[in-house]
Amino acid sequence: MTSLPLIPVDPDAPGARRASMPPRHLADLDLAGRRALVTELGEPAFRAKQVSTHYFGRLVRDPAQMTDLPAATRERLADRLLPRLLTPVRELACDDGATRKALWRLHDGSLVESVLMGYPDRVTVCISSQAGCGMACPFCATGQAGLTRNLSTAEIVDQAVYLAGVAASGAVAGSPPRLSHVVFMGMGEPLANYNRVVAAIRRLIAPAPEGLGLSQRHITVSTVGLVPAIRRLASEDLSVTLALSLHAPDDDLRDELVPVNQRWKVAEVLDAAWDYAAATGRRVSIEYAMIKNVNDQPWRADLLGRLLAGKLAHVNLIPLNPTPGSRWDASPKPVEREFVRRLRDAGVSTTVRDTRGREIDGACGQLAAAEDRDTDRTTETTA
To answer: What CATH number is associated with residue 156?
Structure first.
């Protein structure tokens, strides 16, 4: 059995040890905080709104394009309000450009990933909330890498703003030129970085120039099942979608696949999810990776159906994207179809996730792991 992961303490909690965090960015602050910072620099407070409008409203971060600011102050304001947080390492595209994956290096050398996915009716970005992950799920590339640190609020938001700019440029043919959906399903366990993730959500949903102006109903937050944090999120007066990464309906298997289950069992996690649905009126998305000969047996489909029948829930089956060298593989399509049939026969809404990005290391953590392997080989060669 996989050992129980350590749940990282939210760095904003009293007494928490702080990692090396990036410079403060305007997305770390609300508009009042930005005004205070600008006045500390000797500038009139309204400059904060001007810079915020460029960043959130026009998706501009180049000071040269901020022509409504005096030329003498543009660079100084940009340096203090818009420090570079994400340096592109690799940007890959597939699906005729509709899927784009970005690998970023942070100020301390940490690597994170985010993905843009264009559809005829929407543009979605999948963003990371941590560098690495401490949840230790054995079939997940990020989980096997371990946790490096939590991301700052601005590091989270900046991924969405950058990719919103890509969409606005018209680079995603056949899709609207505006970002509409954000899913916290990239690297990390969002609810283990609770305060900063919630602050990031509030930036994403606040209208410009305070934030990006997205609908909170178009934001999804995933979790492996941190029960206290799920209950806390239910009290935030937010109506974001909760996505519960269940992956097994029985404790014996889930203890192995999702080690945090050793702390909060299936029944307790589902109770928290149903309480979240009751508090928000939002249907819970049950994420279930289909793993060949591991969790795809018909009896597990039937058990899952009994657990979810009559609940405000939808099952999102995920064809596993195997990582290099992994012993885990995707379920065969006939097995997947039988699993779907049994869930639907139980009255449970079920769909299979669109498999995108396989040729660009689409599974979370694969691109960062490949970059680390390349770096290691280069170091060995030059040593």
So the answer is: 3.20.20.70
Q: What are the start-end ranges of the H helices in the chain?
A: 31-40, 46-52, 71-81, 141-145, 153-168, 194-205, 227-234, 251-257, 266-280, 298-308, 333-345, 366-382
In contact, 242 and 207? CB cutoff 8 Å: no
3-state class of 285 per DSSP?
Answer: strand
113 is catalytic: yes
Domain hosting 64: range is 26-81
Residue 46: give its domain's CATH number: 1.10.150.530
pTM for this structure?
A: 0.91
Active-site option among 113, 189, 256, 287: 113
| Alpha carbon 256 to chain centroid, angstroms | 23
Continuous segment of H or E residues that includes residue 287? strand 284-290
Rounded CA-CA distance 286/313 in Å is 7
* 63 lies in some domain: yes
Q: Tokens 């309480």: give the residue.
A: 275
Residue 379: pLDDT over 60: no
Q: Given a cut of 50, is residue 46 above it in pLDDT?
A: yes
Same domain, 38 and 152: no
User: Is residue 179 situated within a structural domain?
Assistant: yes
Q: Are residues 65 and 110 in the same domain?
A: no
Identified catalytic residue from 126, 137, 140, 364? 364
Longest Cα–Cα distance of the chain, Å, equals 69
- The pLDDT score that the predictor gives to residue 374 is 52
- For 207-242, the pLDDT digits (tens) are 999 999 999 999 999 999 999 999 999 999 999 999
Is 140 one of the annotated active-site residues of the chain?
A: no
CA–CA distances in Å: residue 220 to residues 82, 203, 283: 26, 14, 11
Structure confidence at residue 5 as a pLDDT band (50, 70, 90): low
Mean predicted confidence (pLDDT) in 91-103 = 91
